[in-house]
Amino acid sequence: xxxxxxxxxxxxxxxxxxxxxxxxxxxxxxxxxxxxxxxxxxxxxxxxxxxxxxxxxxxxxxxxxxxxxxxxxxxxxxxxxxxxxxxxxxxxxxxxxxxxxxxxxxxxxxxxxxxxxxxxxxxxxxxxxxxxxxxxxx
Length: 138
What we know:
It holds the Pfam family Ank. Helix content is 47%, strand content 0%. It is mainly α. It folds into two domains: 1-73, Serine Threonine Protein Phosphatase 5, Tetratricopeptide repeat; 77-138, Ankyrin repeat-containing domain (Serine Threonine Protein Phosphatase 5, Tetratricopeptide repeat), CATH 1.25.40. Helix 1 packs antiparallel against helix 2 (28-36), helix 5 runs antiparallel to helix 6 (93-101) and helix 6 packs parallel to helix 8. It is elongated.
């Protein structure tokens, strides 16, 4: 299908692209194949989530790193927040650390409540994540 010129960013009736479906199913080889052949991380997918947001939902660190390596916008905000705020709300310290090490901006607000990452860390009373955020300029 790729050789035949199939539109890799086409969205199905459920709002998913081939890339977001492969990410959701954690098929790393398919994800890399699609991205190597031009599938974009900038296209909205399932439930208007960006591919990086779908990857974060899997909690698969290697998959998340892969999507970041292909240039996904780490600070893209959706209705559910940025990937950093999503990780903070889930209490996923390793992911928060990864995102901050990849230069996620702790001061970007989510698109609905306009709260920052530090707000969410304080709300969830996560002192380890608060400390990480402060070390990264929040």
